[in-house]
## 1
Amino acid sequence: MRLTSTAVTLAAALAALLTPTTAHAAAVLQPAQQAAGETITLPVRDALAELAVADEDRTGYTRDKFRHWIDADRNGCNTRAEVLLKEAVTAPEVGPKCALIGGSWYSPYDDRYLDSASQLDVDHLVPLAEAWDSGASGWTPKEREAYANDLDDPRALIAVSAASNRSKADKDPTDWLPSSVGYQCEYVTNWVADKTRYQLSVDPAERNALDERLTVCPDQPITVTLAR
């Protein structure tokens, strides 16, 4: 009896010692606990669950608070042109002042091929106004500039038809999804990745819309290098 009681006491003490360590180990896996520049990988539904949920506030927003398009590497081509060059199906000629001549592009939002750069917009996957609503209002001007010209994550900026981009405008997935049904899963997965990269919040309706759409999509791992 005495031996059994001692064994139980020792087991309880051991569990008490181990519990804080286990809890700490789990905590460091949360995206919110990671530092800018670190890379995390987790299933997209888990990533969505980790995003903060908060009501949106557009107070004070103007588009010019996100300076773009800049020529960060001073090669004569601004961010918009860099995206168009990178995503071209057929490479255009590059003329004076980075004018793009010829070439062809695929717009995944509406499943269209386009043969002129003038027919395309470069879309901020998470629109500038949506980013402002979700936390960017508290960033510095330089941080907002970096967001608006993010060439380091290929999901952040995407060349699409001007018509589809203007249909989307500032809407989140509650009110807009690409008309190309085959692209919708990739779109919402990339949306979650982009919000994770910048630690942006989601509003309750947006959270529900993303969750509902992702239930019919593969719960694929996303790899994100945190910008914040």
Note: The beta strands are 39-43, 93-94, 100-101, 105-107, 112-114, 120-124, 157-161, 221-225.
## 2
Amino acid sequence: MAVRHRLIRVSPSAVWDVLADGHRYAEWVVGTSRSEPVRGDWPQTGAAIRFQVRLGPIRLVNNTIVRRCEEGAGLELEAHAGVLGTARIAIELRPWGEQCLVIVDEHPLQGAGGRLHNVGFDALIQLRHRTMLARLARLCETVAEGTPDDTRQAPHGTTVRSAATGVEGAGHA
């Protein structure tokens, strides 16, 4: 299993607010370029979002279903990735003082990913999670600061673009 964690400098409720917005999924999940809720009330159990994965000119449309929701504390998702199969992604939020410790645990369930799963595959998932958690942290911290999602103030008053913008392709690896 690929388990990774990151301390995010906001409260668990601020992280939950981002996770609970199905439109923001593509902003922090590596490899996705668009997302939209398509069934149920995201992130309640049984709800689903559709997302796009771009591989050059090819756009694959897949979905993620909420298998378990503990509001404010955790989500368990089943991501469907076509011929690659399905994966279980568990996201746990733990209060850590005034901050939030986010723990992500992912492993393939079915399809090619499940058949090819090995230590090397876990290492690739670890790299993906490092980037994903960095994006989630940046997005949560930007939203909590109250600055617009697509820009933030850098030192000395200059404005920089955030990797967590709401434009199509923001989540593309």
Note: The helical segments are 12-19, 25-28, 111-116, 119-145.
## 3
Amino acid sequence: MSIFVKGKSRDGRKRQPERDAYDRLRQRQTLHQSAEREFKRQFFGLLLVIVTWSLAMGWLLALVTNAQGATPAAEIGTVDVVPAQYKLGQELYLENCSTCHIALPPAVLPTQTWKNLLEDSQHYGAQLKPLVDPPRILVWKYLLTFSRVQLDDEETPYRVNNSRYFKALHPGVKLPRPVQIGSCISCHPSANDYNFRRLSQE
């Protein structure tokens, strides 16, 4: 009789162990499905954030690229685009150097040449009043940034026709001998305006 008591529920019916196991299995399956749905929801949410961020970055990059592309090369003028932090140094360089001759882009001579020219009051046979700080520092930072390094075994050139950088910037160009600063205008008609990108038809 005790066997029957243990096997009965409160209402007097027999318990069905299979039914309990089935209910537990259904609960586990429901929990598992709920966890899967939550995981999928989080995954797709993260995927949506990544796609939205990528599209926004692509759009911003396209805006920046179009803004830079909208500026014609002729308006840039110099060999290198000069960031705002070096603009004042460039202006001071032009103010001090283009009054007597065409101001050359820093890229045509090595850094050591520019350093020596800034420190020396003798300038190609003329006596100059040297720049003093802080303008000298601003000009130097501009020249340092946009000139190229000199090789250890290389002699410091003081004429553009002796500079390997000047030659590298003019591949295949028949240059007059000797190269004079004034002869730049024959190929660069806007050189007086410090624009070396605009070239003559030749």
Note: Residues 70-76 have pLDDT under 50 and may be disordered.
